[in-house]
Write a structure and sequence with these properties.
The longest helix has 21 residues. The chain starts with 7 loop residues before the first helix and ends in a 12-residue tail after the last strand. The protein has 469 residues and is an alpha/beta fold. It contains 13 helices and 21 strands. The protein binds 2-acetamido-2-deoxy-beta-D-glucopyranose (3 copies). The site of one 2-acetamido-2-deoxy-beta-D-glucopyranose has 3 residues, from loops. One 2-acetamido-2-deoxy-beta-D-glucopyranose binds next to loops.
Length: 469
Amino acid sequence: MPIFKTVPSKIKDICLIISSLSIFYLLSHPLTPLTPSVPSVTTVITPPPLTSRHVLFSIASSSKSYINRKPYLHLWYNPNSTNAITFLDRPISHVTNPNPNLPPIIISSDTSHFPYTFPKGLRSAIRVARIVKEAVDYVTVTESLKDNIRWYVFGDDDTVFVRENVVRVLSKYDDKKWYYIGGRSESYDQNMQHSFNMAFGGGGFAISGSLGRVLGRVLDSCLRRYPHVYGSDSRVYSCLVELGVELTYEPGFHQVDVRGDLFGILAAHPLSPLLSLHHFDIIDPIFPGLTKQESVKHLFKAVNHDPPRILQQAVCYDSSKSITISVSWGYVVQVFEGNQLLPDLIRVQKTFTSWRRKETSFSRLHMFDMRDYSKDPCKSPDLFFFEGIVPEEKRSHTFYTRKKSMNCSRSEGIRNLVNIKVFSRKIDADTQQISPPRRECCEILQPYNETMVIALRRCEIDELIAMDP
Ligand SMILES: *[C@@H]1O[C@H](CO)[C@@H](O)[C@H](O)[C@H]1NC(C)=O
Ligand SMILES: *[C@@H]1O[C@H](CO)[C@@H](O)[C@H](O)[C@H]1NC(C)=O
Ligand SMILES: *[C@@H]1O[C@H](CO)[C@@H](O)[C@H](O)[C@H]1NC(C)=O
């Protein structure tokens, strides 16, 4: 019997089944057009790998601070390979703009009509928060940027970025999705006051291009709703919370909310790459015998050759002489007597003081594992600070010399040491270190007396970092 002769009720049933099936299909594939019956070829367009031309750094400065902070910008800004802009509250008469060696200056628009009610705070926080919007607007109208920028990075004029590392770390994330990436304060107290979920602005933070465009559109409305919060970063954070976005924590951003000697923090950096440092005008010079700015410049001699390796900590042991050596690449080598276990060596030595000078119940607390650092130099390790680098194309030798210290009684293996030379290969950031990183191993070349040579290398599969594994 031909099918068209089916009784009407059967046809109804079939229609019902077909329509239910298509409703079911529409519900499970809500965006799929129904029309194409030819098999469709899905082309997956992979975006080109992220490079510095896809990232825009926006720096919050002011007519008051710009001249003194310019040297920090020079450290990391390279006109040939960095997109960056600096925002000022008003023009400075004797400053040339544009200066080919510094980011172009943009004068922020007037924000006096926005309310600010935080007691004793600075209303410039509104202008600085609004840089997020102004940076997005700038990209939209700038021919060379508008089709290229995939990430917005924000910082202060005293934020020192390790630009290459920022690009490498951001390349882990999809800029088409909404990302808010940054670091917290080191100070528990500061996080408690502002938020444990906020990226602190001085350490710098990143916003994906897709999120930046939306945030730019809605920010002004948030600025009117949060006149009572303290800083620019709190304003940006509040608006992101309202958009339903949460912080993605990257431990390489450093707000540096501490005072005094940053040594303990620098010498025990996490394995993830150093992304930024801040507050160099407030902390002590990071190298003995140099000024604050000279000392940062000195660190950058190492940064510029092998950025992913800067501050990376490797530990080696000489069991015959019972010595433990901790190399924080490009910064310091610490020589300890005896067997120091790795879990102790990666704790931050408390060489610094608290951000808040007034003592509160929380002011001594910090956001990482710590251990005491003895003020008696004979009870602390012998220190060999970074002196210089001999760069080669794929590797380098870095040199460290002993910091002049008291005559402490030391075992023979340590007493005569004057120089330490560290050999390393450049870190291939595509394959090494980025998610998940593994600490490198190191080897002390025997024999040594006044000069010790150390080679850094990848650990063997089963190799343990210990004196007697
Ligand atoms: C930028 O590129 C130009 C031309 O290649 C070069 O002369 C200059 O030294 C570069 N500047 C920096 C800071 O690398
Ligand atoms: C250290 O000892 C040497 C010789 O033992 C002595 O000449 C020197 O003055 C001492 N230095 C200090 C700082 O005590
Ligand atoms: C080690 O160096 C010291 C001087 O710092 C020297 O007196 C001693 O002879 C040297 N030892 C060897 C084995 O070279």
